[in-house]
Amino acid sequence: MKTKFKIVFTLIISMQLLSCVNDSDLNVKENNVLSQDNINPEQLVIAAYSALDYRYNTGEFRDLWPFDHAPSNWATSDIRCGDAYKGGGGTGDNPGGGMHQLETHDLFPSSENAYNVWRAIYFGIKRVDSALRAINTIDETKFPNKKERIGELKVLRAHFYFEAIKNFGSIVWYDENTPANQINQIANNFDSGFMWSKVEGDLKDAIALLPDSQTELGRINKVVAYAYLCKAQVFQKKWPEAIISANYVINSGKYGLVTDLEKLYSIPGYGNRENIFAIQYSINDGSQYGNLNFGNLLNAPDSPGDDIKNPYLNGDDFDKPSQNLVNAYKVGADGLPLIDSYNNANVTATDLVDPRLDHEIGRTGITWKDWAARPQQADWNRDPATYGSFLVKKNVISPNSNGLASNPTGFPWALGNLDFPIIKYSDLLLWKAEALIEGNSNVSGGVAIINEIRNRAKNSPYVKDFNKPSQNAANYLINLYPLSLSQDVARKALRMERRLELANEGHGFYDLVRWGIAEQYCNAYIQVEKTRRTYLQSASLQAHEQYLPIPQIEIDASAGVYKQRTGY
């Protein structure tokens, strides 16, 4: 059973949340409120699932259109780790007001972007809490699915708190047992041991409650809970435990690598087997545009003059892959990454490159997915002088996906019911490889898993030349690592492979932080990249900027209960 949640009435359900108990946005308010007194518990569970897309019916623009705080984390990860530039119509084009400052690491406590991330996370936590409080009052004889639904909700709560930890490093923890009148008295806790124990506790509770499979498509099951537990253990460097959790998922046989990368990133439903846990989007569901990935709405290519020969007719051109990322796909004559020297010079048309480059990143003159009208054009970029000419190609729906996009020839541009993965099978495999390498228990076994990922890329159909479709679009070459790598070299190979395989999926910055190299890496990136992008001249990452600031508006509303991270 897949872990996507098939919801055709998400917009209706997204109105369902209990009223708040105080004025803090920790206890968020929504219009058209429904409560456990006038809704059945199954609907409250669905409302908690629907919170994954960060869209809420509050009547505020930012809560219906999460452009600057997408659940894909493109603004809080991709553009902060050097995998992408902000993009758009110049440095002054700032959804949320401070996105340029995210890219330059010039963060500030009044940042609307940080506040919107905080709001989105605690909207989700509140929905989970509402559902758990209601379900706990119902006798199991009257609600036969009670145990399973509690398990699902605990995985969802672990996900939202995980996002709070990754982004803020400090959370306000409360659960269904916390008296409502005490929630606004809870301090944000910087104790990482406490925070992780709560996340792990929820996931282990869920594992005990959930079956391996559920009868309804998309509901979280025990295997998903183990996958998320593996992620939490990797973030804590619990290597033996992470291996056990990963093995449970692998041995379940429910998930695996699909064979065609182009379809994985383009065709709705094709990635079902690979997406262990994904946000599912819908069309033709009775809502105005469909319940689409509005958090990534800004990231489609531009289309000057709305020319019908262009694939999406329009777009805002944000989240643009960086030159550094494109260079990372260069390989040597052995078909292996140039881990230490890839950025010494920019990619040229004659360079050998990993075939994943043109599946994941759009380059001028190269075939765009299955679009037959023309290859990628230079004028698909809004501000190439500032941000270059590379386009985010990954996880953008095929322009020929008939019936799968809400409006393929107009607003909302490149959006459709293409799911966005939170946990992919390839991600889980690389967690296990990392645990084997870092734990030094089986380095060659870790390298073998890296090779499994690379072998999929090697055997996946390559992007073809637009004018000569019998030929490849570039000089593609990819080969496997020898299994005899030392631990140090294997570690470098693992980290590079995570970047190549998962680029622009919202993981990069958080990986750098958990590896303890964010300052060193980002500042080294900026030193070179500022020679290519002048707006980075004064950029730098300081230690405290590895986490978003606690929103000042929340600190003020808490009357001093919440504390800011030192440095802000």
Automatic annotation (TrEMBL):
- Keywords tagged on the record: Cell outer membrane, Membrane, Signal
- Pfam families for the chain: SusD-like_3, SusD_RagB
Gene3D superfamilies this protein is in?
A: 1.25.40.390
Which N-terminal residues, if any, form the signal peptide? none
Recorded hits in SUPFAM superfamilies, A to Z, give: TPR-like
Localization in the cell: Cell outer membrane
Origin, by domain of life? Bacteria
Where do the RagB/SusD domain residues begin and end? 274-568
Task: List cellular component terms (GO).
Answer: cell outer membrane
Q: Which InterPro entries does the record match to this protein?
A: SusD-like_N, SusD_RagB_dom, TPR-like_helical_dom_sf
Domain called SusD-like N-terminal: residue spans? 105-231
Instruction: Name the family the entry cites.
Output: Belongs to the SusD family.
- What is the protein's name according to its record? RagB/SusD family nutrient uptake outer membrane protein
UniProt source species: Flavobacterium cellulosilyticum
Q: What is the lineage of its organism?
A: Bacteria, Pseudomonadati, Bacteroidota, Flavobacteriia, Flavobacteriales
